[in-house]
Amino acid sequence: MTPKKVLIFIFSGLFILLLLSVVFPSEGIKITNKFTLKFITIEDIINPPKQAEPDISNIINGTDIQDETDTIVFIKENKKKNLDSVMIDSQYVYYKPIPVKIDSVVRHIEFPDKSHSSLDKFFAILSNIKNQKRIVRIMHYGDSQIETDRITDYFRYKLQSRFGGVGPGIVPAVKAFDFKSPMIQSVSGDWKRYTVYGRRDTIVKHNHYGMLGNFARFTPIINDTLPDSIKVFNQEELMPHKLMSYASISISQSPYSFRPTKHFKRCKMFYGYNKTEVKIKTFADEQLIDESILPPSNDYKTKTWNFETTPQNIRFEFEAEDSPDIYGFSLEGYSGINVDNIAMRGSGGLFFTKMDLNMLSRMYRQLNTKLLILQFGGNIVPNVRKSYDYYRKAFSRQLRTLKRIAPNLTIMVIGLADMSKKDGDTYITYPNVPLIRDALKQASFENNCAYWDMYEAMGGENSMPSWVFYDPPLGEKDFTHFTPQGARYIAKMFYNAFMYEYNRYLRKKK
After folding, report:
1. pTM of the predicted model as reported, rounded to 2 decimal places
2. Cβ proximity of 187 and 247 under 8 Å
3. Which domains does the chain have, with CATH numbers?
């Protein structure tokens, strides 16, 4: 091909591309519901779109300035005065609350009416926690945004520092992912985890999933719905001698946790529905401290171990023909606050009504659960619709159900964060994020629940790119999740808003 023909070919190609940029629809051609074919326009060439990045410096700086809402004074034990204090190790720590000023809160908690009373029942317990002879428990349910104890860890630390309490609270028997916080866990044996959310395993014919919405086993589930002839054939002819299964769970302190989280005085195991006896040996720092037999059970049970000093590692060794369903372990003290991190990747928060409500009610009561924080909505975003009235109704049903089975519970809702999708060379907020936010808020208000708007707290529309491109980055490159630093800022914002309302409550009481 001669140079002249090459030049003609190149200019012909450029002309065709130019023509396409003129005639191609600016909104693109929709191929499927999830895919639209687009082509660069002349306007894009002349004036390329710029990434919208709201300035979040005031949000970040304001959060940093107002982070410490308590004055902390350490006093030696032998110099203890008549102060409102809690004891950590051999020192007393006195906390003098400083009310958060109205202009210091990045985003206030919203209430269904002007009385701001939705949290008063829990605040009354909090204000009298010195006289509580047992743990006051907060359960923080959420989607992948709270994995690795994000957001929960700081909220727990601040509340335990001020109101007392130690330990991470409830951790699952088997983690879905190998996260190192709030505790490090490892297992041996043929463990399998079953969840009430996501894709449920059809072998599970019951709905008693426990307070975490999941349980784990180290032997297969025996399907009681099978015909007797099949049961006899499988168990007697194929396995004439019953086989014992062995498994273990280790729970160790994490270097990534706050100091109060690393201390605990006892461990409770929640289990049940084992058809045979279970032998269990418990080791604390490699020393055998207990050897027990768990009898067969047709309900959930609790097994407790107490410690004089916090062990660095606890190991449980199991031996049984049939595994119990193990719902989790609570690492805790004897009083103060516990805040449980219950992360449910992929969940939209619509699982409570699928559970054994009688069992859940009894667990909440036994655990002295007084506040539920529900943080969902992000997993609804990919399902783009024009209306989310269905989600409002479904989420409202969850709240109604929880209030019915646990009337003494206080519930508050944290909305979803900003989420971005790529539009050409820029990232923009999914158009349905505000709609889902509104559905969550309306469901909350319909059930007299407080609501904290995380979307607006981080800056509103198109704010996620500002978090992603911040230095250091506060958002992950998926434009959906926070980095650990970003999650810490969100936790600080929420804690300050929470304590502002608590101080308002104290002033109102006086």
Report:
1. 0.84
2. yes
3. 3-46 (no CATH), 109-165+335-510 (3.40.50.1110), 167-332 (2.60.120.1360)
